């Protein structure tokens, strides 16, 4: 054995160091995953005798309106939570400058990351309060002042233009990303179509014809673009001068977006920290060479800086996707799934069914957990596959 170790020491040493971590990962991650899958085939309250029911939990799951509501909210979380990546990058680039007082600015932007999610939830609950919250106060002031209302309308119009540009860029770069990953351009367009169809089915039910598909491809992006204006108009129409205002967390139209805004605050800070670390590792010689070639501004950022931030981007996207899909704490603190269950997400619905006073249905909760795990693995596996292809240059 000693002779074998000496002959293969360089090959075996990494596995010796990895063994404790792999053992913990196996015991506390891999084994529970398979246990959850196994429990999902049982009817079990967590204490008594478990009864094998096969796929009955999954059959019930796909006929459960609350499950589809939670799934739709998770999709909204996932789409809007990705704003943390470009926002964190822009803030990190700003904080990477050498100007007076930058340490103070870094502390202010870093502050949300160290705050507990419970505190963040409570702060935003007070912020949204319809009788004394800052949001109501500002909206009431804007509504009562013609000049302020004009400025706010111009800001909303600017936001719509930015969303139009972002949507066009997102479509173009998604097609380019899939094409560079080895897919044909028609396959990239097909993937986008499938995503749009799934989103449309979550909102309006199954599509019945190719015409419905064409309408969905145009209508859904248009709704995303006009949503800020509709939200603003609806908000102003609901604000009244009697102090009641609009209850964001009690209105099923706004509650999910209000919670997401609260979650984006610390998430942007986290992404910012990742990008600050990545910017410290950007090769100075490449920056200097690009300047000599005449690169400035956006060209420098797009062609020189961002390609070197690929590892930080990978981690930021993976962490943001996971955070969006397991968004439990803010939902629990701010609304407890309300109003009428419209702010549920899959992780919270799993808790309600398995552990709250509404359920103690461990098998059904495990089925929801398996569905959430499958969705998460689709995204994470895609990013890992893309990173492996880039690193191996295949």
Would you tell me the overall average pLDDT?
A: 76
What percentage of amino acids are in beta strands?
A: under 5%
Compute the CA-based radius of gyration: 24 Å
Strand neighbour order, sheet with most strands: 1-2
In DSSP terms (H or I, runs of 4 or more residues), the helix count works out at 18
Report the structural category. mainly alpha
Helix content bin: over 70%
Distance from first to last alpha carbon: 39 Å
The profile of the biggest β sheet is: 2 strands, antiparallel
| Helix and strand pattern | HHEEHHHHHHHHHHHHHHHH
Record field, number of beta strands: 2
* Shape by Cα distribution: flat
Low-confidence stretches: none
